[in-house]
Amino acid sequence: MPVGIDDMAIYVPKLYIDSKDFAIARGIDPHKLEIGIGIYKMAMVDTNQDPACMAANACLKLMQKNDLKPLDIGRMYVATESALDESKAMNSFVIGMLEQIYGDGSFEHAGGIECKFACVSGSYALYDNANWIRAEENNDRAAIVIVSDIAKYDLGSAGEYTQGAGAIAMLVKENPRLVAFDPKVTSTIIKNEYDFYRPFGRETPLVNGSYSNYLYLIQVKKAFDSYREKAIKTKLIQLQEDESITDKIDYISVHLPYRKMGEKALAYLLRHEWRCLPRWKQIIEEVGMDEPTPKDPRGTIESILADKDFMKADDQFRKAFMRTSIFKQVFEQKMASSLEASAIIGNLYTASMYMGLRSLLEFEYKKNIDLENKRIGFGSYGSGSSAMVFSGVIQSTYKEIVKDMNLEKEIGERSKLDMQEYIRLHSNEGKMNEPISNSNNEFVLVKIGGNTADKAGLREYVFSN
Ligand code: CAA
Questions:
Q1: What is the pTM of this model?
Q2: Sorting pLDDT into bands at 50, 70 and 90, what band is 465?
Q3: What do you get for the CA distance between the two ends of the chain, in Å?
Q4: In the chain, what percentage of residues exceed pLDDT 70?
Q5: Alpha carbon of 37 to ligand 1 centroid (Å)
Q6: What angle do CA 222, 227, 232 make, to 5 degrees?
């Protein structure tokens, strides 16, 4: 019985910061952001928004679009790294909001939790819920997995140009119309790391930028190696001697903290997959230099990053590899469409890869490509750190959903923030009852806390129309 994603709905806040304005204000060359990072617009939340109301807005859209009633839903998981409470799960806030529409207690029969593991937790949530359905524990009900986050970094930091905000709700069920997950091949890797983390009480993370980039590549590669082993063992994929597993995967969708990271991840994976194949000789000729190796190939990530000669040569090699005709062709065919949304929304942490999937489906469909039976390989990464690699196949019914996808329309009209407004918002100086944008048919936050200490964490939301 195929199980997977039947439909998805997105919510992106209506405010954004333009990368050119941002670059000028910070004294950065705008080309660095547009080309080096791959960002044009970063979505920002208003004073009356938080990750829970973005999650509820995406979920309500999904339910209304599919005419779902609460009784059709058996589980609702919210994956986020923007938690609002140390104990109360974000899905309970979401259910509170949805019950304003569907009636008090209408979700009582359901279950679910908030999941945390930086940006990878949405993938774990999907995996657990798919297995809940495969195990037939679902009593004919579907699951909803919501990924919702606000990517917020310190003012003036290098992470500041990789911000963004948004939520995606995904309907998980049997015989899905969009993507059915391949069984028995999902692979994970996990290690205690401090590449990116947000200790209690902090609103912004502590980040080791270059370390996090490198760790992401290594962890996804390791999970991919394990995926390859399982895919061959289960005969999901069969390889000839001169073939790599990436040849057999039609699309590759990875975690996107920023657009360029997708391209870098693809390059890293392909180098790893291809360097033992006959085609490598021709690639090396086109690159024009040998692939460098670190002084200590078995060294730690720190020692490799500290090996300046290697890092410089490797950067040079990577850039030349990314200019080869074969890389460009594979990138265009397998990844480019998944990166479109990232450039105009920014980092969505847990939701980034799923916004990438949404983007891939819409923009490949617009190229008139037949997507039926095409396999998508997913490379999900969460700092701290864990990676999950899995795959799924686009179903024959995909057009029913994809034909109506229109990112610009679904995001809706947006207002550009000037730098002063942006800094006020970022510094939490704006008032909740004085938002910048108009809220239309959506949940907004109206109050945090009551008049006494025991009510301090209460959050009140209303549906604004
Ligand atoms: N024109 C074109 N390109 C330019 C340029 C110009 N004028 N100036 C610089 N560039 C290019 C650089 O050559 C570089 O390209 P490559 O990556 O291809 O080498 C690119 O712009 C980035 O420049 P820097 O190397 O100088 O990097 P930076 O100091 O600006 O930092 C960053 C980039 C590390 C991603 C930083 O934004 C950051 O710390 N972000 C937060 C952490 C992060 O996103 N990590 C990703 C992995 S962890 C993860 O994925 C979890 C998560 O969601 C956070």
A1: 0.97
A2: confident
A3: 41
A4: 100
A5: 6
A6: 130
What distance in Å separates the CA atoms of residue 210 and residue 280, rounded to the nearest whole number? 27
Name, in order, each residue with C-beta under 8 angstroms of 18's C-beta and a sequence gap of 6 or more: 40, 41, 416
Q: What confidence tens digit (pLDDT) does each residue in 194-222 have?
A: 999 999 999 999 999 999 999 999 999 99
Q: Whose CA is nearest to atom 7 of ligand 1?
A: 32
Contacts 24+ apart (CB under 8 A), 292-299: 292/317
pLDDT averaged over the chain?
Answer: 97
- Residue 27 is classified by DSSP as T
Question: And the tokens for 350?
Answer: 């847990």
| pLDDT tier, 6 (very low <50, low <70, confident <90, very high otherwise) | very high
If one residue of 39, 213, 354 were mutated to test the ligand 1 pocket, choosing by the most ligand atoms within 8 A of its CB, it would be 213
Q: Name the closest-CA residue to atom 12, ligand 1.
A: 36
- Cα gap 191→178, rounded to integer Å: 32
As a whole number of angstroms, the distance between CA 153 and CA 335 comes to 27
Query: How far is it, in rounded angstroms, from Cα 220 to Cα 228?
Result: 12
pLDDT tens digits for 373-400? 999 999 999 999 999 999 999 999 999 9
Q: Which atom of ligand 1 is nearest to the CA of 318?
A: 18
Mean pLDDT in residue range 130-139: 98
Ligand 1 proximal residues by C-beta, below 6 Å: 29, 31-32, 35-37, 118-119, 158-159, 161-162, 196, 207, 209-210, 212-213, 216, 255, 257, 260-261, 315, 347, 349, 381, 383
Cα-to-centroid distance, 396 and ligand 1 (Å) = 38
Structure confidence at residue 47 (pLDDT):
98
Cα Rg for the chain, rounded, in angstroms?
22
Return all residues near 372 (Cβ < 8 A) that are at least 6 apart.
Answer: 394, 395, 396, 398
Band the pLDDT of 106: cuts 50, 70, 90.
very high
The residue contributing the CA closest to ligand 1 atom 52 is 257
Closest Cα to atom 30, ligand 1: which residue?
158
- Token pair 């279950």 is found at 111
